[in-house]
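FAQ

Q: What does a record look like?
A: Structure on top, sequence underneath. For example:
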């Protein structure tokens, strides 16, 4: 009996609109509408997930740790009708929630009549969680740099695939069993490894990062899943960039990182040596020179982007040449200074300390 059949049976027995969501409020199944419908139910069905504001409202009633049904009153401002939340718990772990719109007819006795179905739904979610954990261990083997460990993974996959590295937020649990079928994931503090088809990698990375991560990196696609470990290596490097360079946060894709693909491979000491080439530039000068070099040395575009007069730009560039001793008209000097500024950016980011090698 699958989740959709369980939800349909519960809705029929209780004559109530029913939806089933995982622990992150991702919609898994819903029954045909019976009676009134509110904004939360319609949005959940259309968008497959409740809003953060609605989630906070429901969680304030203690549903995550409740052992039995929780009655939640209506809230006109949020577009919430009165409902009952039945936590889907298996062996003292909450794996999801059954939601029932309540016009006043859902007595404790009637709710108790569907307890066997509720238990079955919780068991299904728990089994999916265990299956994902088993696959997660084999995925970590597949992504190993050791060819013997990779050979022992025993996963039958088709490409193209892309690896995703996610940095977990402190105290957040990774509900990996809620990911789409065909997506493999394994958590090992503090990183979660995910392998998805190349076509859905971006959407999966955004979803996992939004669920419980601080940042994520996506490796390049590989036609041969046996080469997924190379994509994983790129994903971990892309994650480092996402943590340190604001314009790439919170999800960085390896193919879009440009020169950062080279710089992020350097050790912390090597980055520091390169950053020293631009060390004489203060905040304003550094931003001015980096913008100028990013714009290919085009003064008009640079001044417009910085919001300054071109004479101000020329003054700052001349000052930068004096303090660095580098000639911005010389190609190699410009390249050295540009790389130094990019290296400094990687060093100053919030993830620099734990990421330095």
């Amino acid at each position: 009996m699958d989740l959709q059949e369980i939800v349909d049976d519960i809705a029929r027995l209780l004559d109530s609109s029913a939806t089933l969501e995982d622990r992150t409020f991702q919609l898994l199944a819903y029954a045909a509408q019976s009676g009134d419908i509110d904004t939360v139910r319609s949005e959940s069905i259309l968008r497959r997930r409740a809003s953060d504001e609605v989630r906070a409202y429901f969680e304030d009633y203690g549903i995550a740790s409740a052992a039995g049904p929780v009655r939640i009153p209506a809230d006109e401002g949020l577009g919430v009708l009165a409902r009952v939340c039945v936590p889907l718990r298996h062996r003292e772990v909450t794996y999801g929630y059954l939601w029932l719109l309540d016009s006043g007819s859902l007595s404790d006795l009637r709710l108790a009549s569907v307890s066997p179905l509720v238990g079955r739904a919780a068991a299904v979610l728990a089994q999916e969680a265990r299956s994902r954990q088993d696959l997660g261990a084999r995925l970590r083997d597949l992504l190993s740099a050791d060819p013997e460990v990779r050979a022992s993974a025993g996963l039958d996959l088709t490409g193209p695939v892309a690896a995703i590295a996610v940095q977990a937020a402190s105290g957040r649990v990774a509900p990996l069993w809620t990911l789409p079928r065909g997506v493999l994931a394994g958590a090992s503090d503090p990183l979660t490894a995910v392998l998805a088809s190349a076509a859905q990698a971006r959407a999966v990375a955004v979803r996992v990062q939004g669920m419980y991560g601080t940042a994520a990196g996506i490796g390049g696609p590989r036609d041969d899943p046996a080469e997924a470990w190379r994509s994983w290596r790129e994903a971990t490097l892309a994650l480092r960039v996402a943590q340190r360079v604001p314009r790439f946060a919170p999800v960085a894709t390896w193919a879009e990182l440009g020169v950062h693909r080279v710089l992020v491979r350097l050790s912390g000491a090597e980055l520091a040596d390169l950053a020293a080439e631009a060390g004489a530039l203060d905040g304003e000068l550094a931003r001015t020179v980096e913008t100028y070099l990013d714009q290919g040395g085009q003064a008009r575009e640079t001044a417009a982007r910085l919001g300054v007069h071109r004479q101000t730009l020329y003054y700052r560039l001349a000052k930068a040449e004096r303090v660095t001793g580098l000639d911005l008209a010389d190609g190699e000097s410009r390249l050295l200074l540009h790389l130094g500024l990019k290296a400094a950016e990687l060093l100053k980011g919030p993830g620099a300390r734990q990421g330095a090698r």
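Q: Is there anything notable about this one?
A: Residues 115-142 form the longest helix (28 residues).
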